[in-house]
Amino acid sequence: MSDYQLEEIPVGPYKHLVSERAVTGETMLLNMGPQHPSTHGVLRLLLELDGEIIVNCIPDIGYLHTGVEKNMEAKTYLKAEVMSDRLDYMNPLGNNLAYCMAVEKLVDLDVPPRAQALRVILVELQRIASHLVWLGAFGLDLAAMSVFLYCFREREVILDIFELVSGQRMMTTYIRPGGLWRDVPVEFEAAVRNFLKIFPARVDEYEALLSKNPLLQDRIVGIGKLSAHDALSYGVTGPMLRASGVDWDIRKARPYMGYEQYDFKIPTRPEGDTYARYIVRIEEFRESLKIIEQALNKLPMGPIKSDDRKFVPPPRSEIGTSMESLIHHFKLWTEGFPGPKGSIYNAVESPRGELGVYLEGDGGPKPYRVHWRTPSFNNLSVISLITRGHLVADLIAILASVDIVLGDIDR
Amino acid sequence: MDNRLEKIVQVLQENAGATYEEFRGELHIFIHAEQIVDVLTYLQDEHAFTLLSVLTAVDYWPQENPRFHVIYQLTSLTQNMFIQLRVPVNASQPRVPTATGVFDVANWREREVADMFGIEFEGHPDPRRILMPEDWDGHPLRRDYPLGYEEPQFSFNFEEIDLRKPYVKE
Fold first, then answer.
1. Number of domains within chain A
2. Which residue of B69, B107, B108 to mutate against A (max A Cβ within 10 Å)?
3. Chain A residue closest to B82 (CA)?
4. B81-89 and B26-30: which strand pairing?
């Protein structure tokens, strides 16, 4: 078609983000999402393509923005916690922990050792469950259907444990400021031990299916390389940062909830590609299992809540006999407890990276400002950098390896 | 306060006129808006604060002067330290120079703050809204922005409420 004329294409608000070739129509602008199955939720990507090569990738987020930070300002410290479950829905217990630790730091509240150990066990189980969903979706995106089914089979065992302790499979709100909602039932230890027994062989099974599989390796080795410098500049944390060779894990650097008592390693890889991110997460399965086993072996007896009645509700048995307890119960569930004037920042290591809560109190019963520093937000922002020059099919692999959760990004 | 942090605070007090507060063992350093980029560059280059963990803001409405604090939480991986910088911003001129030249993460985080608080980041390469729709009015995380509820529509008052119901403009 020799008489074909290139026309000026309207690129509207994206003009400063695409190359000049998009304006002349030489490259194609393609919309991917927000309903695309491999964007893992409602993520929209605007791709500038030269044939099948990605010239630019412009993420568009906010489809799942629910105003969690604004809503939390209108609730008491205790009621605001239920919102935290809904942020990163793959990691509800981790979010509970981040929020409760922030509240505990703000009001200066201690947590008894048994509650700390149980928190560690549950959060590590949650990390495994989150990585299982990631591995399943990762396999599915790269056309390994069976891995998805295996992963969800194992995840079910973990969710059953959560149901056992909290009555809920996902939106648990089990970790509370000052400790836990209630003690774990007697079946808990056997259930966790059963999981510890079956899971190592299952991880080997996943590895046998995937790690040395040439079909998978062809698609992920050397794809989406992220250097350590870029990773830090973009605020990337978690397994993605560790796959770029930076040995940084908040559980080791600033141990919380007694992580310093447990012996575990921080898996790192120097390559920074999609394969490295895959290997790091597989290794984290094994390290989390180690932590759970150690915590379970030396699980102390004792209370599971702080006995500071100004912040932690009294047990039901006391309310019938103690006037004081009745007053505390009434005050806590109607007015809530006051947070002091001041602000704190507290970060924990979520399955996706540094999950931080900035919490500011103004002396009243409601938080003045809550900011969630969610890891997926930063991890996704690097996508335009690491997909540049790759094929569209590689974009799917890279996106899967970032492990995004849109609830975590949009808040 | 940590010895290493004490030295940093001293330098910032002398060169940037910074003041500081401590709460629960956390250090909050107040910096003037025009000096924030220099201070961030200094901390990144000289003290290995290579990770900008948090960039957010707080609204102190109805207080006008300053109305906002823009917050920068920095982490040093090699020294395992963290430090918080706070930039007071007035209600009449909510402007802060952009930190995108120092940290790439500032790009999205500043867009978020601009979207949620209406603080302008001067020199930002991509000043679009990030979470709210492009044509949204107002900045939701400001304290004077109502939380908002939807009026329930029943068959008897459906039309009446429909008239004043906000829809996304095409």
1. 2
2. B108
3. A345
4. parallel
pTM summary value: 0.89
Residue type, A1: M
Amino acid at A320: G
Picking from B149, B70, B63, B169, the residue whose alpha carbon sits closest to that of residue B112 is B70
Q: Which amino acid is at A89?
A: Y
Residue A280 lies in a domain: yes
The pLDDT tens digits for A209-246 are: 888 888 888 888 888 889 999 999 998 999 999 999 89
Binary contact (A371, B24; C-beta < 8 A): no
CATH 3.30.460.80 fits B3-164, yes or no: yes
Which of chain B's residues have a Cβ under 8 Å away from the Cβ of A62? 129-133
Residue A205 shares a structural domain with residue A266: yes
| Res B148 pLDDT > 80 | no
For residue A320, tell me if it sits in a domain: no
Say how many residues make up chain A.
Answer: 411
Are residue A56 and residue A74 in the same domain, yes or no? no
Chain B residue closest in CA terms to A62 = B131
For residues A275 and A392, state if they share a domain: yes
ipTM of the predicted assembly exceeds 0.90:
no
Task: Name the DSSP class of A37.
Answer: G
Q: Are residues A112 and A20 in the same domain?
A: no
Give chain B positions within 8 Å (CB) of A61.
Answer: 130-131
CA atoms within 13 A on the CB side of A27: 20
Distance from CA of A266 to the nearest CA of B (A): 14
Confirm if B57 and B72 have CB atoms less than 8 A apart: no
What domain range is A255 assigned to?
69-306+335-410
Helix (H, G, I), strand (E, B) or coil at A343: strand
- A322 falls within a domain: no
One domain, residues A188 and A236: yes
Q: Which residue of B has its CA nearest to A70?
A: B141
> Domain map of chain B by residue range?
3-164
Chain B residues touching A360 at Cβ < 8 A:
58
CB A366 within 8 A of CB A75: yes
Among A108-117, A282-291, B76-85, B151-160, the least confident range:
B151-160
With CB atoms and an 8 Å threshold, state whether B80 touches A369: no
* Facing residue for A62 by CB, picked from B51, B80, B131: B131
CATH of the domain at A131: 1.10.645.10
For chain A, what is the radius of gyration of the CA atoms? 23
On whether the CB atoms of residues A278 and A285 are closer than 8 A, the answer is: no
- One-letter amino acid at A250 equals I
Residue of B30, B45, B54 to mutate, interface with A, max A Cβ within 10 Å: B54
Q: For the CA atoms of chain B, what is the radius of gyration?
A: 20
Indicate whether A312 belongs to any domain.
no
Residues A81 and A101 occupy one common structural domain: yes
